[in-house]
Amino acid sequence: MILANACALVGCAELDDNVSEVEQGSYFGGTTFFKEKREIPVCWMTPGSDATKAMVRAKITEQYENPGPYNFYVRFTGWGDCPPTSTGIRIKISDERPHHFMGLGNQPQAEATTVLNFTFDSWGSTWCDWFAQDNCIRANALHEFGHALGLQHEQQRPDTPSECDDEEYYREVIPGALVYGPYDPYSIMNYCNNERDEAGGDVLSAGDKNALGRIYPAGATALEYDAHGWSGWFWRTTVSNTICTEGDTCQAADLDGDGRDDLVEIDERGRVRVKWSKTSAEGLPILGTDSIATLSPDLCKAPRQCLFGNLDTDSRDEVLVVEPATGEILIADVGLFGLSVTERYAYPVCSGSEQRCKLGDVDGDGLDDLVVFTRGSTGDVNVARRQWTWVYSGSLSGGFTRVLWLPPPAKFHDWFCVGGEQCEVGDVNGDHRADVIAFTRNGPVWVAFSASDSFWGAQVWHNYFCVGNEACRVGDFNGDGKADILTLLPDGMMYTAFAEPARFGSQNSVRAQHCVAPQTCAIGDVNADGHADLIAFTPRMTWRWNLNNFTPRITGEP
Q1: Where are the beta strands (DSSP E) in 198-327?
Q2: Per-residue pLDDT tens for 325-342?
Q3: Which of 91, 246, 326, 541 sits between 20 and 30 A of 401, alpha carbons compared?
Q4: 252 contacts: CB under 8 Å, gap ≥ 6
Q5: Measuring CA to CA, which residue among 461, 445, 506, 20 is closest to residue 224?
Q6: Is pLDDT above 90 for 497?
Q7: C-alpha distance from residue 550 to each of 7, 76, 232, 361 (Å)
Q8: DSSP characters for 475-508?
Q9: Which of 121, 105, 84 is nearest to 40 (CA)?
């Protein structure tokens, strides 16, 4: 399948803040897709047979909104008369060659973006004129909607076989186009598909659906910050409606110790399920493998709170469970048969509505510690440091065994992160010890530094960042060993401020359209490159996603 190349279609004009570019090795280049959403409005600009309009809508819904085992998600909404201007797909019914104006649906338009022929009086083949007119209308609609979603003509691939290159147009290759998968003779986008206009040929092929899964994947997606700023990658998951759906809590943690954070779901029953992050045969990262593993049937059932972090000396993350009903702290490890509780402590922390708990390595020993922000009237910050101790083995020969344990929390700071402030942990100065961060929500961002046995030197590191109902996140996004801060606005804008000496300094901004409701977001390194990635979990039934959006071309693409 060929995915449309923006520079070839429209020229590489200066891009505004609604435009971004994605690159991934030799497989991907600049592409033209719907950027801001998967729910795409459709309207009719001209009158026509209501029955035929209904037939087109039914076919589009059948083929594009029912992916079956294929991993993609789009929805077409509206289907009424067009307003004077609108985004999405604006259909003109005209007795001419059907075509689509590539890319126009991404921005408000007054003109048509798609032309469909319902009569074939002046244009059309003999087959469409007499024998299979309805089939032709449905197949043409699928083809033009494919263009609207960013698919190009399959016969324009550089590996098109000789039987399909007898015309110059078929041999044309769009420079830099994104070629995905093997040549597909049955693609709805292929002029050499002789079955397209025949009875039963008005369907998307497996190759079409695989390509749609590459650019409109359902499930989880990730953005990474690199030398070019934030870039969205083509991640894939499969059977994505079985993980991180509506009502679930979605996180990222490295539960198999391979250095890549995996997708973790805690559902409404308290089940802990995971999809493992791996690398494909082509060397590309895969966010969530085909299989899903249930690690526990009810370990994290509400009102329990589950935190993931490195609590022992193996390379896997463990789960720290706060049990408010009994005032206990549980630690569970991943083993051959899933998660099993290995330690219990009678510490009534993180049980009140005001307290907040986080995991972070505050003393630089390579083990995460439990940081308790009490907030309330005291604003104390207490820490239970993960430590080694000697335990009598109880054997007849005597002797002691060195084991890890979690001592009771001790006070590390008073009056830090109080009221409605958001409390986080992160190593902002690169000394390998987690510091504490307070987003005041009215502008200033405070930092207090770890001295291993206390937090000290509270000071403002940013004067105005992450305010109101913005979503605040912390992670080492540029891979320099220091924690940066990120804020996500309800309108899809995203700002990052990077850690510098004594402040969060230089900022990067992008209209990412991630973490916009109903999405939830987590931070994790999903490809083990030392950069924290932003992972967006989207309920399948209400998907919102952004990829690339470029200036539309001004001539029709049949």
Answers
A1: 220-226, 229-232, 249-253, 262-266, 272-275, 278-279, 285-286, 293-296, 305-309, 318-323
A2: 888 999 999 998 899 999
A3: 326
A4: 261, 262, 263, 264, 522, 523, 524, 526, 535
A5: 20
A6: yes
A7: 9, 21, 15, 43
A8: E-SSSSSS-EEEEE-TTSEEEEEEEETTEEEEEE
A9: 105
pLDDT for 135-186, tens place per residue? 889 999 999 999 888 888 888 887 888 878 655 555 555 555 667 778 899 9
Tokens representing 521?
């977001």
Element (H, E) at 151: none
User: To which residue do tokens 């338009």 refer?
Assistant: 109
Q: Which of 501, 503, 507 is nearest to 487 (CA)?
A: 507
Report angle CA 381, 384, 390 to the nearest 5 degrees: 160
What is the spatial distance between Cα 33 and Cα 518, in angstroms, rounded to a whole number? Answer: 21
pLDDT over 60 at 543, yes or no:
no
Amino acid at 62: E
Residue 441, both tokens:
């929500």
Where do we find the tokens 């990730």? 222
Residue 206 — φ and ψ, nearest 5°? -60, -35
pLDDT digits (tens, 9 = 90+) for 253-271: 999 999 999 889 998 899 9
d(CA 272, CA 307): 12
The mean per-residue pLDDT over the stretch 65-73 comes to 76
Question: Quick one: which H or E segment has residue 215?
Answer: helix 206-215
Among the listed residues 191, 198, 275, the one whose alpha carbon sits nearest the alpha carbon of residue 241: 275
**Which two structure tokens, joined as six digits, stand for 217?**
């994947």
The Cα 446–Cα 448 span in angstroms is: 7
- Beta carbons within 8 Å of 382's beta carbon, 6+ residues apart: 349, 371, 372, 374, 409, 410, 411, 412
Q: Diameter of the chain by CA atoms?
A: 99
What pLDDT is stored for residue 198 in this prediction?
A: 67
CATH domain 2-215 topology? Collagenase (Catalytic Domain) (3.40.390)
Measured at the alpha carbon of residue 553, what is the angle toward residues 552 and 557, in degrees to the nearest 5? Answer: 115
CA 162 – CA 184 distance, rounded (Å)? 14
Overall average pLDDT of the 12-35 stretch = 32
Residue 466's contacts (CB-CB under 8 Å, 6 or more residues apart) are 422, 439, 441, 445, 472, 485, 487
Enumerate residues 6+ apart whose C-beta is below 8 A from 11. 551
What is d(CA 189, CA 100) in angstroms, rounded to the nearest whole number?
Answer: 12
Per-residue pLDDT for 20 more than 70? no
Among the listed ranges 215-229, 242-256, 392-406, 520-534, which one has the minimum average pLDDT value?
A: 215-229
